[in-house]
Design a protein that fits this description.
Helix content is about 45%, strand content about 15%. The protein is an alpha/beta fold.
């Protein structure tokens, strides 16, 4: 019998239902399923009740309803417009939930393991691109009614929040989540007690409970070590995402991999396939190997043979060629945390060390989860075509007998969940020309040919509306950011008129890692000033966080503040603090041009530019990651992605190309208007971008590729 949290979810919904007036009772089950966040009218439904309080709640509908005064609930129950909206949203969501399940494999569901999931801003268990991709993946599997379950960790303090001081130095702080008010429930077993799993780490037994979150039809299970029986050190294991301590991270990955498999077992969920999304969960393969060993009779098998026996149940996706994304550990540290787990599973430490090294014969090489994940999986894929090429070269030593093009690493290019990332303005416009329910067929190129039918005036009006919404958000955010870091009141007040809704609006928002090259934008301050300081000028929005221990990235941000002050036009270049899923949708929707300037070939894929493209924004990017497949010469602009050994020479080359494109092509095209004030040439590129990038980088295409090429390639 399965105790997968369904009953616990029903009980939580019943408790919330009892607090609501009868006409609003559907709000209870809607609030406990993140499907509301990408259902048309879902967000507006809660904002209609009280937009200000909903914002203050972090757009967490459970927290919002639990804290809403009774008088406001009673007033809402008499609002006929609200009740009609509620009925529409409930009908759409119920129809989605009632669809029959589309089985990926006949023997059981696919278990998707990841260290972070960016489902929604109110569930702070994500940091950046990897997590948002994982969240989009779960949403798309729900839209396709696939039998997939997600497995991760419930970080009580989530990822860092960011505050910049007057000098531009990043300071971090963390906020603890109130689990009693999350749209999540603690999973309980047949005895009514919380499902509990243990994993040996250090000298003790790390215990964890399991929480369930409904992401549409797809359940997400999060392990939580915040239990009284755990020591303070053990509780800290699920305190913060990507904790700086190697030992804490090793304990996290043990809980994710080993504990995740045990949690599924405890709930009666028997996956047919484990999808390891990055190497963090690679220890799941050891747990399956241990189970296999116990089931076999006769002579004991070595780890290498056990991994071969279980290999058919694992697939692995690698997301980055950057060393920080492929962590390695000193063997002494590795086994000081994980040694007891390894020993209790009956696995030889020496054998595990060999499988976790690039060179299995080495006795000094550090241990990494990526080599282990590649060796334990029947399939390894990169996340773009170019990343596949880079990954084959990077991991070729694991296959010494294989030529470079024979290394068994394929690729499935990342994509984004269209209903989450397409602004309602653009979504409504396309619905007029694509027809109802078109999002379910978003990977059909023929569908997107209808963008050519959209009149210039309608497409331009939509783009202007989204830019205006962004400008209004920026004006309010800048005031708070400047006052918060102690800027002069007059400067903060000037933000009320910051940005011009008619100017070319350029966005650069992503994790602040040095290879992302934020500083390339400020390479030649004089040329940058000419681009932005003009009546027909440009305005630039910057945002992103550096990891607390990435001091190089912090210095890049600090230098950017210095250059911004030197420009002496503070309201044309702004930095938005604490970039996360709250502001990201408006940024990618409102910007006319999206920049991506990675040092090639270090960008595995990138997805923010895809989100911009879905909203009619154009991309100007280095030819790396996804843009190598997306750019065709007519749907945006490209900077040479070839590798130059001398980093300074490459920066000089790429900065010049960036400024040349902005000065000679981008700005002239944007400001070239017909008699009606419409940039016809610009909109031609927008249509080309929508027509080519929409179907190619929708989540539907990505998930279909995983099902057909990775999950069931021989079916």
């Amino acid at each position: 019998m399965r105790f997968d949290g369904s009953r616990d979810m029903s009980r939580a919904i019943d408790r919330l239902t009892r607090r609501l007036p009868e006409p609003l009772e559907d709000l209870a089950w809607i609030s406990y399923n993140y499907l509301w966040s990408w259902t048309p009218g879902g967000r507006e439904l809660f904002r209609t009740i009280d937009a200000h309080r909903f914002t203050l709640s972090g757009e967490n509908p459970v927290r919002f309803l639990l804290n809403l005064p009774e008088r406001d609930l009673l007033r809402a129950a008499t609002n006929q417009d609200l009740l009609e909206r509620l009925a529409q949203v409930a009908q759409i969501m119920d129809a989605s939930m009632q669809r029959p399940t589309n089985r990926v494999l006949s023997s059981g569901p696919v278990a998707f393991f990841c260290a972070e999931f960016g489902v929604h801003q109110s569930l702070p268990v994500y940091s950046g691109g990897l997590g948002v991709l994982a969240g989009d993946f779960l949403k798309e599997t729900s839209d396709q009614a696939l039998d997939v379950v997600g497995v991760g960790l419930l970080y009580r303090r989530g990822y860092l929040h960011q505050r910049m001081n007057l000098d531009g130095w990043q300071h971090e702080y963390w906020l603890e989540a109130n689990t009693d008010q999350l749209p999540a429930v603690r999973v309980r077993g047949a005895d009514g007690l919380p499902v509990r799993v243990t994993v040996p780490v250090w000298d003790g037994e790390l215990a964890a409970h399991v929480w369930r979150v409904n992401v549409g039809r797809t359940p997400l299970y999060l392990l939580d070590a915040e239990l009284e029986e755990n020591s303070p050190l053990e509780r800290w294991v699920t305190a913060r995402l990507y904790e700086g301590s190697h030992e804490i991270r090793l304990a996290q990955y043990a809980l994710l991999g080993i504990g995740g498999v045990r949690a599924l077992d405890a709930m009666g969920i028997n996956p047919s396939l484990f999808h390891l999304n990055e190497g963090h969960a690679a220890l799941a393969s050891l747990e399956i190997a241990s189970q296999t060993s116990k089931e076999l009779t006769g002579d004991p098998l070595g780890l290498k043979k056990l991994l071969e026996v279980g290999r058919d149940r694992f697939v692995f996706t690698t997301h980055t060629p950057v060393p920080a994304g492929n962590e390695t550990y000193d063997p002494d540290v590795f086994f000081s945390v994980l040694g007891r787990s390894i020993d209790q599973m009956g696995i030889s430490r020496d054998e595990l060390s060999s499988e976790s090294r690039i060179d299995p014969t080495s006795t000094t090489e550090s241990l990494g989860f990526s080599p282990l994940a590649i060796r334990c999986a029947r399939s390894t894929n990169a996340v773009s075509k170019r990343h596949g090429e880079v990954a084959r070269g990077m991991w070729n030593p694991l296959f010494p007998d294989a030529k470079l093009d024979e290394v068994p690493i394929t690729h499935v290019t990342n994509a984004v969940h269209l209903p989450t990332w397409m602004d309602p303005t653009m979504r409504g416009l396309l619905t007029k020309f694509f027809g109802t329910d078109w999002e379910r067929h978003a990977d059909d190129p023929g569908l997107w040919s209808h963008v050519d039918e959209i009149p210039d005036v309608d497409l331009w009006r939509a783009r202007c509306d989204m830019r205006l919404q962004l400008v209004e958000m920026i004006r309010s955010r800048i005031v708070v950011d400047r006052l918060g870091r102690g800027e002069d009141v007059a400067l903060a007040e000037s933000a009320f008129s910051a940005f011009d809704p008619t100017h070319l609006t350029i966005g650069f928002a992503r994790r602040l890692a040095t290879y992302k090259r934020l500083d390339l934008l400020f390479h030649d301050v004089d040329r940058l000033r000419k681009i932005i300081d003009h009546e027909e000028g440009a305005q630039i929005i910057l945002a992103g966080k550096a990891h607390p221990l990435d001091y190089e990235a912090k210095n890049v941000a600090k230098n950017m503040f210095v250059v911004k002050r030197g420009l002496d036009i503070p309201n044309r270049v702004v930095f938005l603090e604490d970039y996360d899923l709250r502001m990201a949708p408006q940024l990618v929707a409102g910007c006319d041009l999206w920049l991506n300037l990675p040092r090639p070939p270090l960008e595995a894929s990138g997805t923010s530019g895809m989100k911009s493209a879905l909203n009619g924004g154009l991309n100007l990017s280095v030819l790396d990651g996804w843009w190598c497949e997306g750019h065709n010469g007519q749907n945006g602009w490209a900077i040479d992605g070839s590798v130059v050994d001398d980093a300074r020479e490459q920066d000089e080359r790429d900065a010049k190309a960036l400024y040349d494109l902005l000065e000679n092509e981008v700005k002239p095209l944007f400001f070239s208007r017909d008699a009606n004030g419409i940039p016809v040439g610009w909109l031609a590129r927008v249509r080309a971008s929508l027509r080519t990038l929409g179907p190619q980088f929708s989540g539907a295409r990505m998930v279909n590729d995983y099902v057909d090429q990775i999950y069931r390639p021989n079916h």
